[in-house]
Design a protein that fits this description.
Pfam families: F420H2_quin_red (PF04075). InterPro entries: F420H2_quin_Rdtase, Split_barrel_FMN-bd. This is Nitroreductase family deazaflavin-dependent oxidoreductase. The protein is α+β, with helices and mostly antiparallel strands and 147 residues long. It has a single domain, classed as Roll (Pnp Oxidase, Chain A), CATH 2.30.110.10. A 6-stranded antiparallel barrel has the order 1-2-3-6-5-4. The chain is globular and about 40 Å long. It starts with 7 loop residues before the first helix and ends with a strand.
Length: 147
């Protein structure tokens, strides 16, 4: 018996439901936790939810996306106010895109902490990338600090 791959929208809905059903655990320094990001749709003005990995680095929280063309980063660029959800907790945040060395350091920490091989491959980085490797490949990647 073969199984059909789940479509991305269905997978996202399932992940969102699982994250919202889970107890909230704070991120550890240098690690990430799964959260639901709620943005405002830049065209529709409606709330949009997506599962994300929230990384804690140097006491700050970050969101990293390997493809700045996705909807959620573009929604954040249009409206920086958003919410991070887990379990029954909702935290209002303001997202600010960061670049340069700060962004490269966050990407390096993110790919070190992520355990899903498909998620790491999405960044198209060499194994154990240094800051120069990451900076060379930053154009499609976007990093947000969330306060």
């Amino acid at each position: 018996m073969t199984t059909q791959p789940m479509d991305p929208a269905a997978l996202n809905r399932r992940m969102i439901a699982d994250i919202l059903a889970a107890p909230a655990t704070p991120p550890e320094e240098g690690g990430y936790v799964l959260r639901v990001l709620e943005t405002t749709g830049r065209r529709s003005g409606l709330p949009r939810r997506t599962p994300v990995g929230l990384l804690r680095r140097d006491g700050k929280d970050y969101l990293v996306c390997p493809d700045r063309g996705r909807d959620w980063p573009n929604n954040l660029l249009a409206t920086a106010d958003a919410a991070v959800l887990v379990g029954n907790e909702r935290r209002a945040v303001r997202a600010r895109a960061v670049d340069g060395a700060e962004a490269a350091d966050v990407v390096a920490a993110y790919v070190r902490s992520v355990r899903a091989p498909w998620a790491v491959r999405a960044f198209a980085l060499p194994e154990n990338p240094d800051q120069a490797d990451i900076l060379d490949r930053m154009p499609p990647i976007i990093v947000f600090r969330v306060d």
